[in-house]
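Sharing a chain and its predicted structure for anyone who wants a worked example. Both blocks are below, sequence first, tokens second.
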Amino acid sequence: MAYSGRSSRRLVKARVRQRNGQGTPHPVRDWYASVNWSRVRFGLAGGLFLLLWAALWARAAYIQLFDNEFLAERARRQHTSVELVTGQRGMILDRDGQILARSIECRSVYVNPREVADKRHTADSLAGLLGLPTEKIDSLIQTERAFVWVARKIDDATATAIRRANLPGVGLVKEYERIYPFKQVAGQLLGFTDVDSVGLEGLERAFDHELSGLSARRVVRRDAAGRRFYVNGEAVSSGQDVRLTLDVQIQFLVEEALAEVVRQHEARWAGALVVDVESGGILAWAQYPFFNPNTYRLYAPTQYRNRLALDALEPGSTLKPLLIAAALQEGAVTRDTVFDCENGEWRTSRSVIRDDDRKLGSLSVRNILSLSSNIGCAKIGLKLGAPKYHQYLTRLGFGRRTGLHVSESKGIVHRLRDWSETDTMSISFGQGMAATVLQMTQAYLTLGNHGVYKPLQLVLSEGTDVQGGGQRIFSEGVSREVLDMMREVVEAGTGTRARLEGVSVAGKTGTAQKSDKSGTYGDQRTASFVGFVPADKPRYLVAIMIDEPQRTRYGGVIAAPVFKNVVSRTLAYHGTLPETAVAVAGKAEKKETGKSPSKAGKGKGKPGPVPGADVLAPELDAGLGGERRYSVTHNAAMPPGDRAGAAVPDVVGKSVRRAVEMFVLRGIVPVVRGEGSTVIRQSPEPGANWPQQKTDQECILWISEK
């Protein structure tokens, strides 16, 4: 017999009541018994699910509509980071492509303290590999930061050892270290960079933007443990190269000459500039004592100070040619105008002017310059007048920066309204104003450029139409006339020690007093010389300053010989030094030092031969300025007596190696000039007799590429 579901429940309830002795119905019990609890539980579960679902949708809507930007940025910061990386720093080159400064790839060590498992072991291991105190590394590892530098720019061997140690939390990153292959060469000019390859001094600072290149963004992903891995990022652009007008060979020989004069005369420092007159390019920018930017931390700021551009000193008598040029240009005087030099002492109402105890009488303008009379120049300045003189000094560049990419001083030229009659007289012979060697060189370049202002150049890529370039200041005739007077200074005046046989030289000596801390003139002097070679058509301009020499204080005695040394070796380096000058210079040097002269030949690369090198081995050394000499051992040479009566062979057209061998077999060490592999000219000529041992004649081979 079948029962429906409801009838079955009623029957069950009736039996329960009967069994419990409850014959009458109970509302609560009856309701509880009548409820379908399965359906109730299902309904509650469904309702709770719908409530949670609605809450999640509401939260999602809030996040998407109101909180999306904040949370997206937070997620990006947690899972990614952006690193700014810079490409390799550009090189600094000389005019021939010689590398003066470059960057090389190296490695630096960092640690992520959060990933270090055994901090004590890690500290001990790194200390042993890096040679650092364990306590220092341990203090770095104990920090809570995620990135800590341990050592910057280590050598390759140390980097390899750290990589092999495989220490958790320790990593290596690629960086670039700045090096200067020629060490101290032009050190003060080049400057240096810090550990982050940011230029701090010199050209490194001036061209930091160009050399550093462009920074690029690199995206770094991080996992939940904070470990980094790299994905595609923007390409890194290296910095631009900067090519200077410097010639490293000439720089070498100028620095050697300065070092010699400073040591000999116990001077405080010395500096020199060599300029190519035609282009205005600076070929050498030299100072002594030297500064090696590879180890800049070992030097005091005074040692890497670029004094040629920053130290403004009274120019002394080297200013006199510019005064006379201005007076000639204005028609105030002629070269034959005579002034009374007051027998060496001129007392005015406010001052006394002397000519260094020299009793000079009436002198023409040309003799005033050649004998460097202060009294004569003071009278020329008064006749020219302060307004005109001030105008010419300003137009020549005094009292302002030259515009080169170096930190430089403006010098001191007082305002015209502050000039007194005494100021006009003192400034006429180089006192009462201050100028840097760079400013003096810029002013003299105008004379050498036929009276037209030509800006100095330090970078080959730069144009010349800056700072008044092309402006005529002196007529061509006035410039030529002043150069003739400066030529007389060298031939018969105060600069005779700058004479070079076979070459016309125009120059002016200078000896200026220096003021002490009290503001008055003391016992110290500066000695200087500025000159052109050749005088009739200037090709090179050389300015030399020697500060506080102790043994001799006059520029004509100590600065003029440096000029002669520099220009003779510069001309020889370019193959334009006359043979008469070679012979005379060789005899003079041999007489003074007892050694054979060291002349410069036209050789690129590092300069100079080293005497006593192996057979046919060209050696280079900073001491001999660019000449390539093939030296031989004593037993390889033919005795000099065996050469008597023998003829010089014809080696023109032969390879340089074969030609040198032929000379060496006869005991002759030839000087090789030029670049290439084939001999194009020789001295002595083919068929001539071999030079004897007692003569100063040398055998020279000029080479080139055919």
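Comments welcome. Confidence is low (pLDDT under 50) at residues 589-645.
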